[in-house]
Amino acid sequence: MFELCLLCPEDRVEILSDALDALDALSVSVEDADAQTPAEQALFGEPGMPAPKDGWQRSRMVALFAEESLAKEARDLLAAQDFFDACQVLGIRKVEDQDWVRLTQSQFAPVDITPDFWIVPTWHEPPAQARQIIRLDPGLAFGTGTHPTTRMCLRWIASHDLQGQRVLDYGCGSGILAIGAAKYGASRIDAVDIDEAAVTSTQLNAQANAVSLNAGLPELAQGTYQTVLANILATPLKVLAPLLCAHVQAGGHLVLAGILERQAQELQQAYAPWIALDVADAEDGWILMTATKAP
Ligand SMILES: C[S@@+](CC[C@H](N)C(=O)[O-])C[C@H]1O[C@@H](n2cnc3c(N)ncnc32)[C@H](O)[C@@H]1O
What we know:
CATH architecture of the largest domain: 3-Layer(aba) Sandwich
Number of strands: 14
Family: Belongs to the methyltransferase superfamily. PrmA family.
Shape: elongated
Bound molecules: S-adenosylmethionine
Strand content: 25-35%
Catalytic activity: L-lysyl-[protein] + 3 S-adenosyl-L-methionine = N(6),N(6),N(6)-trimethyl-L-lysyl-[protein] + 3 S-adenosyl-L-homocysteine + 3 H(+)
Main location: cytoplasm
Distance between the termini: 64 Å
Radius of gyration: 23 Å
CATH class of the largest domain: Alpha Beta
Helix content: 25-40%
GO cellular component, one term: cytosol
Number of domains: 2
Structural class: alpha/beta
């Protein structure tokens, strides 16, 4: 395989990408050419909020071709186009054959949540000190145990007695929190997500861990639960406040993550009509907020 690397401004990315596609590129990837430099500009926005811009100031585009001749032909054809005027060819290079599966797998090692609770990919042996494990491979849905928000929820689960509890995982992603709750004793678990791929992923991961739970779209959540877990983001968590609080049984727990340290007060205010949230944990600028509903 051969890679053709190009540099282009924001307004040429789409046209170049279409052109590379028409020129038989096997894939086209686009990266921020200024990443990790002082010129890097953040481009993300919270759900429901517009991104600050449609694309990076300068993009590095990499098109993969089966033959060197095809990469050279694409380079020469593109260079002759009007729309290529502000773009630049960075080069063509051979991509060495690699065991991509092994390379990808090597990036995912077992993750410790507590000294004896681990998230372990299926291609790894569990560490000797692991007493409780979740088997999980990276997939389409969020939640492999490496993100601080997931880790804090799992730490909370591991330090509470969920024996026999009815638990709701709202925004289940990979199902990691629901599976964790099952491992720590919860017996009636509903895991819901607006993303159908997450629902499927949760079902498959639950099976792989021999855990019984119900996964589905948000309507699946009905009635009250002794523990409600929701690792989403501050904006949707604020919108969901009345709904999540209504699902918490009297005397039950609400556990929220996906919140930045500076957002603690706005979350407390949004939930104040129903429940009093406190900061229970913090990691890498993210916080875990929890509350117990009055009996
Ligand atoms: C940050 S991931 C959390 C995944 C997993 N629970 C974890 O802790 O790693 C958030 C998940 O919430 C889902 N989500 C976002 N907004 C939602 C909403 N309004 N209702 C239900 N799920 C939602 C997303 O599709 C995503 O799978």
